[in-house]
Design a protein that fits this description.
Number of domains: 1
Oligomer: single chain
CATH superfamily: Metalloproteases ("zincins"), catalytic domain
Order of helices and strands: EHEHEEHHH
Distance between the termini: 25 Å
Largest sheet: 4 strands, mixed
CATH class: Alpha Beta
Length: about 160
């Protein structure tokens, strides 16, 4: 998977995590792209207010490009591929590093684990997973735990 955006030294880690996610989900991410950007608290608060009508900072926001349900496969979206490069753009993930680092400390795990969790959480939203209903939250949590465990990042 091609990871674009401002992610600094976390780029390789996130790319590797997303590669593992593709294997666990049995999806071909070789011609898929996603944008991941780290922003400050002010910017994520503005985005949260604009798109979710919640006027406070948060840890991660996702902006899906596809109207995909979690049980649909990416090959069902062939017509959405970019004509220029053949890539299927999943959407944007925005992470507030300051909130992530604060949560890592609060939860007693590493910053790396928290960034990986949030990036994966964002990716799963782009792939149609959600946690509004409790049964959907259980599905999303189970998938996330399986991927993080396969990647070697645990609580």
């Amino acid at each position: 998977m091609l990871v674009e955006g401002k992610v600094g030294f976390y780029r390789k880690k996130i790319e590797s995590l997303f590669e593992v996610a593709g294997k666990v989900l049995k999806e071909d991410f070789s011609k898929v792209s996603v944008s991941v950007n780290f922003v400050d608290e002010t910017e994520i608060q503005e985005l949260n207010k604009q798109f979710r009508k919640i006027d406070k900072s948060t840890d991660v926001l996702s902006f899906p490009n596809l109207d995909k349900a979690f049980n649909e496969k990416l090959n069902e979206f062939e017509s959405e591929r970019n004509f220029d490069d053949g890539l299927l753009f999943l959407g944007d993930i925005v992470i507030c590093k300051k909130v992530a680092y604060s949560q890592a400390k609060e939860y007693g795990h590493s910053r790396k684990r928290e960034i990986c969790f949030l990036a994966l959480h964002g990716l799963l939203h782009l792939l149609g997973y959600d946690h509004i209903k409790s049964e959907d939250e259980k599905i999303m949590q189970n998938v996330a735990n399986k991927i993080l465990s396969s990647f070697g990042v645990n609580r």
